[in-house]
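Troubleshooting log. The previous structure file for this entry was overwritten by mistake, so regenerating from the original sequence record. Sequence copied from the archived sheet and checked twice against the printout by T.R.
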Amino acid sequence: MVKEKVKPVKHQDSVAQNASLLILFNDDINSFDFVIEALIDVCRHDPVQAEQCAWIAHYKGKCAIKEGIFKELKPMHDEMSTRGLTVSIEK
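Regenerated output below.
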């Protein structure tokens, strides 16, 4: 009898397939401190992570600030937009 190796489907695999990214875009309007504060308040980043994301967005033009399912990212997107930051949700 030959046994086949079957890779079990992990919950993480199915979540990863449905994952989206919340992207922060650089702008010339908001200060670094304002962006960092928003990342801490809205996305629950720690201060170091928030500062790193702000610098990445500044130098590269954009930064993925959160990964998750659309339903989780949408409220963060809306709050960041309300605060005047340019964000999008991408698959």
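Residues 13 and 19 are 10 Å apart (CA to CA). Archived copy saved in two places this time.
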